[in-house]
Structures are given as structure tokens and as C-alpha cells.
Predict the structure.
Amino acid sequence: MHSIAAIRENPGTILAVGAYRPGYQAILDFDVLIGRASPSIVGIVGSTKRYEKYFWGNDEVLIPCFGTIAEARQVLPHVDWLLNITSARRAFQMTEDFFASYPGARGAHIFAEDVPEIEAIKLSETYTDKTIIGPAGVGLIVPGALKLGVVGGVDWRQIKANHLEQPGSVAVLAASGGMINELITMVASSGHGLSFALCFGGDRFPATAPRDAFLAAEADPDTKHIVY
């Protein structure tokens, strides 16, 4: 997977596929809390609208919508990450479509549970140069830089209470989406900050294996401790 330090230096932008307003709003709230100048989500695929309106701090912002990833590519020539909120039956094809349209993208998060095992294996074997989080996880958060998924919560008050806008030195890793958020809260309540948190997912064949997550933490100069 990509180094956490590289993500901190250049978080990149996100193309969201599927419908999950609370999750998308949480990412935009995180962006505002870290002082990002513009939303990290630059487009939404699957909506019948031209735009969807979200809060941007005390203001509002319009995120453009597209019928397909190919249509998004015509307007958004460069995107770094896929946030895939489609069903288990569609998750693999949508991920393939994304990397076909954006071969230079850095990775993806697949939210769906029970993606067919043969497809999950194919993802990890085909896209060895990408960082794919999931299936069946809640994503990756690098405090102060990137929130890819609902890891860390969908309420800005939870994000703020756990100081996820500020980089720290503890990496939190887990297979369970519920467990990783509990661990994040425990670490924050003990007075420590997070260097990153990664939920590799509860399905049998996660694209980013636990070993990969531990190696990423070991290689990260800002990570001093791991909670698993």
C-alpha cells in the first residue's frame, strides 16, 4: 500500500460512487476541520441530479453528480481515490471501471460486505500498485490529511472530540468497523493522537491484509505505537 507519509503530503481527491449522504457529509466536515480549501469529494456517481448540496462549515457547497464513472472522467480528468458505496454485487465491477478510467489513481475503499471471494482475491492480485481498503470495512483516516470512508464516525462532533483533525503518533488497526471506532475513542480519551487508522475489513480476503497495514505503520515515521 502507499506510504502514510505520502498521503499526508498529498491527500488527493475522491470520487464517490453510490448513495450515502451522512458518510459524504462527514468527509466534508473533516475537510473543514483540517482547514482544507475545497472539498476532497469532487464528484458523486449514481445520482440522477446534476448536483448534490452539502454543508461546508457554515456555508453550503454543490458537488457535481454523474450517471457513470466514464461521464465523470470527461469532467474530472484527475481523481486519486474511489469511495465505493455500491452493493456487494456491483462493488468489483465499479472498482474495475474506476481504475480503467483513472489508471493513475492511488486506490479505493470498498464499503460492501460479502463481496464474492473470487472477486476480492482478483482485486488484491490485479491492483498490486494500488491501496484498496476493504471489502467490508469502514476505510482509512489520516488525521489532518484524508478521510476515506466513515472510519472515525459520521458526526463532526465525534471527529472533533477524538481530535482527528490533528496528527498524532498512534496507529489504530482493526477488521471491524465498530471496533475500530471504539479503539479510536479509547486512544483519544487516553490523551493520545492518531497517526492513522485503517479498517482492513471483516471479509475473508481483504485487499489490504493485516500484514500490509502493520508494515505501513512500521514504515511511517510519525507512528510510534500500534493499537490493534
DSSP finds eight helices and twelve strands in the chain. The longest strand covers residues 59-66. Residues 88-101 form the longest helix (14 residues).
